[in-house]
């Protein structure tokens, strides 16, 4: 599971003002085309004098009478909205008692943000080199992935009785956003924004599963030719069956990435501890090990996992913390390298990721260091 710190308003809280759409048309067409305007008045009394009982408005400018329908009369300001032609707007602007006439411009959802964790692993440098994860298949074995305007889900499957692969928990959707939130001008961007995301529901809405169900999910990934498997999950008990399954995935060329665990102890969870799995620990924005991040023998590397902003249920974005949030950054990084070197084996991708890190502390706590996509994709 993960620590959800704060829920943001959909598409973050800041709005961006942009100009209205421009079309190519004749001057006559533009003059006669009605667009929405906001009309402000010098006082409430003046506004009321313009309105009649039918909520239409009449005024005389230059001895010409014209009428138009009021779309909305505002309660807190002396203003209305109405559809006007350019000519009508220009004439109304000169009318007695009218304070302003302004086009009703478009307000969009916020512009896209590059989250701190994505910057911290230098993913934007890889993006500038043209790497996006395009064509690489990443299976997210988790609680599923919810529909979200910042995610493209290529497909999926559920191994949880009574559930499909649409996320009802939020964990899997958050993980998916760090891997591959779209570079679409809204919300956030992931490490590999054009990777093909596959939602494999093994944890269900309760966020827990038997080992046997996780094994079924990994087998599905093998049978469906996934390139990368993200396992932001784990437990303290070893399983020979699970170890053999992740070994089989590696033999088929699949890179499996798993969370080290969130108990803060000096031993990492399974399946992250298995040799054929990349084990990921969590650091904060200052590259210090998160106190809850498990460490010790078998830890491969670390990535940002504290207050990570990513996609969530109902089209929202939240900040969350844990090794679950660090792991998908590495899965996304593997997707970028697979795109860059399509003929590389899983072993070769792992070797590059671990060789080209930023050294930030002892290997017992930080593995080979902090994920660094500037170095890894050179």
TrEMBL record:
<dbReference type="GO" id="GO:0006508">
    <property type="term" value="P:proteolysis"/>
</dbReference>
<feature type="active site" description="Charge relay system">
    <location>
        <position position="142"/>
    </location>
</feature>
<dbReference type="InterPro" id="IPR023827">
    <property type="entry name" value="Peptidase_S8_Asp-AS"/>
</dbReference>
<dbReference type="GO" id="GO:0004252">
    <property type="term" value="F:serine-type endopeptidase activity"/>
</dbReference>
<feature type="domain" description="Inhibitor I9">
    <location>
        <begin position="39"/>
        <end position="108"/>
    </location>
</feature>
<dbReference type="InterPro" id="IPR034202">
    <property type="entry name" value="Subtilisin_Carlsberg-like"/>
</dbReference>
<dbReference type="InterPro" id="IPR050131">
    <property type="entry name" value="Peptidase_S8_subtilisin-like"/>
</dbReference>
<keyword id="KW-0720">Serine protease</keyword>
<feature type="active site" description="Charge relay system">
    <location>
        <position position="171"/>
    </location>
</feature>
<feature type="signal peptide">
    <location>
        <begin position="1"/>
        <end position="27"/>
    </location>
</feature>
<dbReference type="Pfam" id="PF05922">
    <property type="entry name" value="Inhibitor_I9"/>
</dbReference>
<keyword id="KW-0479">Metal-binding</keyword>
<keyword id="KW-0645">Protease</keyword>
<feature type="domain" description="Peptidase S8/S53">
    <location>
        <begin position="133"/>
        <end position="369"/>
    </location>
</feature>
<comment type="similarity">
    <text>Belongs to the peptidase S8 family.</text>
</comment>
<dbReference type="InterPro" id="IPR000209">
    <property type="entry name" value="Peptidase_S8/S53_dom"/>
</dbReference>
<dbReference type="GO" id="GO:0005576">
    <property type="term" value="C:extracellular region"/>
</dbReference>
<protein>
    <submittedName>
        <fullName>Subtilisin</fullName>
    </submittedName>
</protein>
<dbReference type="InterPro" id="IPR010259">
    <property type="entry name" value="S8pro/Inhibitor_I9"/>
</dbReference>
<dbReference type="Pfam" id="PF00082">
    <property type="entry name" value="Peptidase_S8"/>
</dbReference>
<dbReference type="InterPro" id="IPR022398">
    <property type="entry name" value="Peptidase_S8_His-AS"/>
</dbReference>
<keyword id="KW-0106">Calcium</keyword>
<keyword id="KW-0378">Hydrolase</keyword>
<dbReference type="InterPro" id="IPR023828">
    <property type="entry name" value="Peptidase_S8_Ser-AS"/>
</dbReference>
<keyword id="KW-0964">Secreted</keyword>
<keyword id="KW-0732">Signal</keyword>
<feature type="active site" description="Charge relay system">
    <location>
        <position position="324"/>
    </location>
</feature>
<dbReference type="InterPro" id="IPR036852">
    <property type="entry name" value="Peptidase_S8/S53_dom_sf"/>
</dbReference>
<dbReference type="GO" id="GO:0046872">
    <property type="term" value="F:metal ion binding"/>
</dbReference>
<dbReference type="InterPro" id="IPR037045">
    <property type="entry name" value="S8pro/Inhibitor_I9_sf"/>
</dbReference>
<dbReference type="InterPro" id="IPR015500">
    <property type="entry name" value="Peptidase_S8_subtilisin-rel"/>
</dbReference>
